TrEMBL record:
Assembly with partners or alone: Homodimer.
Domain of life according to the entry: Bacteria
Sites where the protein binds substrate: R94, R104, R130, D215
Cofactor entry: Mn(2+); Mg(2+)
InterPro entries found in the cross-reference section: IsoPropMal-DH-like_dom (IPR024084), Isopropylmalate_DH (IPR004429)
Protein name as it appears in the record: 3-isopropylmalate dehydrogenase
Origin species: Secundilactobacillus folii
Domain Isopropylmalate dehydrogenase-like positions: 4-340
Positions bound to NAD(+): G273, S274, A275, P276, D277, I278, A279, G280, Q281, G282, I283, A284, N285
Function (record text): Catalyzes the oxidation of 3-carboxy-2-hydroxy-4-methylpentanoate (3-isopropylmalate) to 3-carboxy-4-methyl-2-oxopentanoate. The product decarboxylates to 4-methyl-2 oxopentanoate.
GO MF, one annotated term: 3-isopropylmalate dehydrogenase activity
SMART domains named in the record: Iso_dh
Stretch forming the signal peptide: none
Major location category of this protein: cytoplasm
Length: 356
């Protein structure tokens, strides 16, 4: 079966890093019995420019029919104040595909250690499980008048339950520890999260469960990130904490993500944005996109073997110091991507029987 992949390159550095991700996908799948077909669609600002909508109907239909979606990044100053913004397109595709669970890993691999601003001695390897289709991003009522503006934070029991199960199921396959991050000393929604998560935690006796207020959690991510395994949190807190967590690896440009629902295609994207400040210079870090491709291979296509080849090649590349300026190097996006591809090819070559 040929894997059908929708490609949403988006805006500013979006197309630059998507090109890198697709080159790595082509290289890693060559001769590996993984066939795929790409469906490139305008989305975000590009959707507004080409089709008059950040989520053109054709892009949504194509995404719905595909096996997986790769998204790079959208948004930027060009569309500030547009009647419908690129960011609204992003929220709309998440909602339309019911992608309620957003998985954002932070790992400081031995190869990345030298780029980390944190002086940690223990290994750092945790995931943020962020609720993605509710909370203050979507709550009603929402309005702006000449006197005030209003956003609403709302969560239902069912929305909390389903994301909590994702987090605990994930913990069972990891170090069996879940931390709920909330603001239960102030917010009613957080109090509801605490009640429901505590109930569901009793179904997972093997998993240790604790809680942290979001202000303290943001400190702990810097001070002692090794204590975390699975961080479970609501939409807005997850957005903020995941950028902070990314930076302890050395750069926001290294972290991928997966967004999934109960069924249907999952979506894979870097956690960062379109980086207008560096777009067009060919210096965007491709790791976040390349690792998003690896997550797709594991979770949508059951090809953890190919994903491992990618992550080993990324580690070998950063180890060798071929890195973009965000990590303190002077490599271009293309140079870094080529280095990753060369490491994939070399590792295969070394497994081949002797040439005679
Ligand atoms: N999922 C998405 O598509 C997404 C996510 C976040 C922000 N955005 C949008 O992106 C636009 C820019 O937002 P912002 O500037 O606040 O955040 P940003 O994440 O685009 O950039 C923040 C900083 O990180 C740097 N950075 C990000 N990715 C990088 C990479 N791969 N390599 C090197 N450096 C990288 C940027 O240069 C910038 O200095 C906004 O329109 C925002 O709404 C989109
Ligand atoms: C662009 C924006 C709507 C988006 C979010 O807040 O979810 C982004 O920051 C992210 O982290 O994916
Ligand atoms: Mg964000």
């Amino acid at each position: 079966m040929t894997a059908q992949i929708t490609v949403l390159a988006g805006d500013y550095i979006g197309p630059e890093i998507m090109a890198a991700g697709l080159k790595v996908l082509a290289a890693v799948s060559e001769g590996q019995n993984f066939d795929y077909q790409l469906h490139e669609m305008p989305f975000g600002g590009a959707g507004i420019d080409q089709a008059g909508d950040p989520l053109p109907a054709e892009a949504l239909q194509t995404a719905q029919k595909s096996d997986a979606i790769l998204l790079a990044a959208i948004g930027g100053p060009k569309w500030d104040g547009a009647p419908k913004t690129p960011e609204q397109g992003l929220l709309a595709i998440r909602k339309a595909l019911n992608l309620f669970a957003n998985i954002r890993p932070t790992e400081i691999s031995p190869a990345m250690q030298k780029y980390s601003p944190i002086k940690n001695t223990e290994p750092v390897d945790f995931v943020i499980v962020r609720e993605l289709t509710s909370g203050i991003y979507f709550g009603q009522p929402r309005e702006t008048t000449s006197e005030y503006a209003l956003d609403t934070m709302r969560y239902t029991n069912q929305e909390i339950e389903r994301i909590t199960r994702v987090a605990f199921d994930m913990a069972m396959k990891r170090r069996k520890h879940v931390t709920l991050v909330d603001k239960a000393n102030v917010l009613d929604t957080s109090k509801l999260w605490r009640k429901i998560v505590a109930q569901i935690a009793t179904e997972y006796p093997a998993v240790t469960y604790d809680t942290s207020y979001v202000d303290a959690a943001s400190m702990k991510i810097i001070a002692s990130p090794s204590q975390f395994d699975v961080i479970l949190t609501e939409n807005l807190f997850g957005d903020i904490l995941s950028d902070e967590a990314a930076q302890i690896t050395g750069s926001l440009g290294t972290i991928p993500s997966m967004s999934r629902g109960s069924n249907g295609p999952s979506l894979y994207e870097p956690i960062h944005g379109s980086a207008p400040d560096i777009a067009g210079q060919g210096i965007a870090n491709p790791i976040s996109m390349v690792k998003s491709v690896a997550m797709m291979l594991t979770h949508s296509f059951d090809r953890a073997d190919l994903a491992k080849q990618i992550s080993d090649a990324v580690d070998a590349t950063v180890e060798s110091g071929v890195v973009t300026p965000d990590l303190g190097g002077n490599a271009t996006t293309d140079e870094m991507t080529s280095a990753i591809i060369n490491h994939i090819k070399e590792s295969r070559h070394s497994y081949e029987p002797d040439h005679v």
